[in-house]
Structures are given as structure tokens and as C-alpha cells.
Amino acid sequence: MAxxxxxxxxxxxxxxxxxxxxxxxxxxxxxxxxxxxxxxxVCPECGYYNGKQVIVKEQ
Length: 59
Description:
Elements: H1 10-17, E1 28-29, E2 36-37, E3 48-49, E4 52-53
Antiparallel strand pairs: 1-2, 3-4
GO molecular function: structural constituent of ribosome
Family: Belongs to the bacterial ribosomal protein bL32 family.
Protein name: Large ribosomal subunit protein bL32
């Protein structure tokens, strides 16, 4: 039965587990201000989500 000869450090173990995400999330264009934003989130530029103003932004 194979047994590790030395204890693997937490940093080495955690760095191995940290790189599972393969692609970056896609961005979509905001229909109000046409800036790029994360999908299904309030636009950080204009504060609109789903055609309604959720956050009042000062311009």
C-alpha cells in the first residue's frame, strides 16, 4: 500500500486545490447604459437591474 513519505504542508495542499476554475465568467452589456457587467447582477455603473432602478447612482 502506498503511503506518503513526508507530510504535505497546508500551503502546498491548498494551492493544489485552489486552481479548479477553468474559465472566467462571461460579461454582458447593460441594456440601460451599455457598459459591460456580470450577468444577473445590478449594473455598477447605472444601478439598474431588469429594467428597474435598484441603486440610486449620482452622475
